[in-house]
Fold each of these.
Amino acid sequence: MKKIIYGLFFGDSITYGEYDGVFGGWVDILKRYALQKFHEGNGDELILFNLGIGGETTEGLLKRIPYELEARNSPDGNIVFLSYGANDLAIKDGVQIVDPEKFRNNIKAAISRARQFSNEIYLVSILPFSEKVNGVVVSSGKLRTNREVLAYNQILKDIAAEHSLGYIDFYSAFLEDKEILLSADGVHPNEKGYGMMAEIAIPIIEKYV
């Protein structure tokens, strides 16, 4: 029997693909790849949903994840990707938007929701920021630091290990060449950066078909 597997990508503007007017970001590159390779052929199908919302934190994720999972639940199986932290760790008006302990609890709560629909869950690392915005208050009023990125990524790694989940380490892939892989705003990838993210993620989605 032919199976139809759904891949659900939850995240913020980097999941959505902001600042990539050519390819639409890493998830949309994966969507096109999956459509060409695993759609309407004789084998199983893999259908990917980009559920990224610009500016979203784990607080927003918890509000919508039950409904999104219910609406896109494939009886043949779902793969869930959670890509959060870049907005949570930001400081605005002297206050961290979602502090580390709350972030940890929110991610764990999202995982327990996702577990009701999927055994295949991946946590996605936060990307490093360009040095030009590291510790700088930008036009949105947010201040972010690479020190916080390390701390929040460690939380994600620990949770992934604790719950036997996949962990996609885009951070390490970007670190050395971040100044040429990030867009002018120093936060979002550019086309080259998004392309590299997709290359890293393709072998992961290929395991399911």
Amino acid sequence: MKKKKILKRVLIGIVAVVAVLAIAFFAYTKDYYRASDLANSSLVSDEEVNVEKLDDETYVFKPTNETNTGIIFYPGGKVEYSAYAPLLHELASRGVLCVLVKMPANLAILDTNAAKGIKEDFPEVENWYLSGHSLGGACASMYLAKNGNDYKGLILLAAYSNKDLKNSNLDVLCIYGSNDGVMKMDSYNDNKKNLPEDAKEVVIEGGIHSYFGSYGLQKGDGEPTITNEDQINSTVDAITEFVFD
């Protein structure tokens, strides 16, 4: 009888801990950065870009002209994924098909394999890149550590790879803002060793962590000296030069 009482107390304790963790996780994920009005307006098609849904949650920004180059994009942690619509819409207007995936609870770490199966829906695209912002970039590198042969390259926005990709055949581009107050530069520099020696780096002068998307200013970020639109345009310039070089 005594053993049963002890076991019951242990089980009650475990249930209580699980409940507390669940509540904490829910509270953590409920507090996220919302997409701006500009971002939402970028989900509308125009003469240069058709914005479609691949499924109920995956947006496709498709150039009206034919293209053989595509990017699958992982959003940053605790950021509403549609906040990256301005960036991807502009990329599509320059000839890059872009696929924006939604992550569970806005955390890419909960679905690092989100890119799986997407390429098959676009057989016309020959050159595929995986890209992501912040946590999304780190998770994109995790996916490519196991699936690198299926992609031409990796594009990291204010992010770094903690997986060893140095001996891969991937083309890698790293972009960050000079005034980024969120990304830990020590970690960024330490993890450069995980990238191929010919990885390219672009620093956007006056840019910040938050301005790769359109969701306002992230807590702890630096002070920008350029506009959100300017940073997105500079990012698109760097990416298109990289993928079409």
